[in-house]
Amino acid sequence: MPAPAFPAAQTAAVRAAEPEPGMLPQHSPLVVATRDGLVESVHYGSVIATAPDGEVLAAAGDHLAPFYPRSSLKPLQAVAMVRAGLKLPADLLALTAASHSGGARHRGGTQRILAMHGLTAGDLENSTDLPYGTSEREDWLRSGLHATRLTQNCSGKHAAMAATCVINGWQVKGYLDPSHPLQQLVAATVEELTGEQPLGHSTDGCGTPLFALTLGGMARAFGTIAAAAASAGASAAVSTPDGGGNAPQLAEAAVGLAMRQHPDMVAGERRDVTELMRLLPGAVAKDGFEGVQLVGLPDGRAVAVKISDGGDRARMPATVHVLHALGVDTANLAGIGTAPVVGGGHRVGLLQPLDFLSTPATEAL
Fold first, then answer.
1. Looking at the chain, which terminus has fewer C-beta neighbours within 10 angstroms, N or C?
2. What is the pLDDT of residues 130-146, one digit of tens each?
3. Does residue 14 come out as left (phi exceeding 0), alpha (psi in the -120 to 50 range) or beta?
4. Quick one: pLDDT at residue 23?
């Protein structure tokens, strides 16, 4: 069968968008999969670990290369919405920052956000999809159901975006347009928290505006959110009046605390991000498509990881390796920091990180 023909103008546009070889990020080997002593696969990428003031504690690869943070932007978007007056119980605020698995709690939480603000699923403008979690998706399909906006993993964020529009008297329809007041506020908040002007713009898979940033900028934002949550929790200054409002808190603290308290709403059962926050007290963590992982620590340090090939399996081993280098006790994270390579139902190798850091983090402190 001959290859399909594309219009000449479309083909030229694609070629024009192709980067020159010298423009490609200079990633480093981070994670390998071995099978009976032979390296079978190598995942390249870039990482950074930062201090509360933004100082680089350790790095590997091309940590200055712009990248799209994808769903790891959600906590920053949630901060913007809380600043705009969004008040939700902690479990629903965590869902606002989630790439959820699409279970009953996640779907029900999204519906609760909508109902609290006089909205319905018809007001959502995200893309449709099946539940993201494997078991959740299988259960959904066995029930004879199809892809919906409610089951798409970003539906909590979109319900919160529509709700923020209602709270502020903004038009709900078209809330994804970059010129909409909501998205203008999100853009300003992202710039503030990262300390960066976006190096590019695009559209995420769910339809929200997307910003190209650096690993260092995203690490700065997560360190700020995690430290704010730790400070609020330590001072017992958190106020939860009837209805679960979070207005008395800094927005960063409200979002970070909600994610820490309800990690199952941020992702779901059998998801490594949920497990990391359960096993590492005080951490605020969020993943993103195409091999992105962010972790903020309660002391304001942070880790940012980007796997060059988008391989999801390499994301957490690289992250746990950097956390260990920072002096964090990662003994409880062994289950997500490595994974067995199986042959014939038996372990014959291992997915594991290399010793990739250019500067040992403990020496930089």
1. N
2. 999 999 999 999 999 99
3. alpha
4. 80
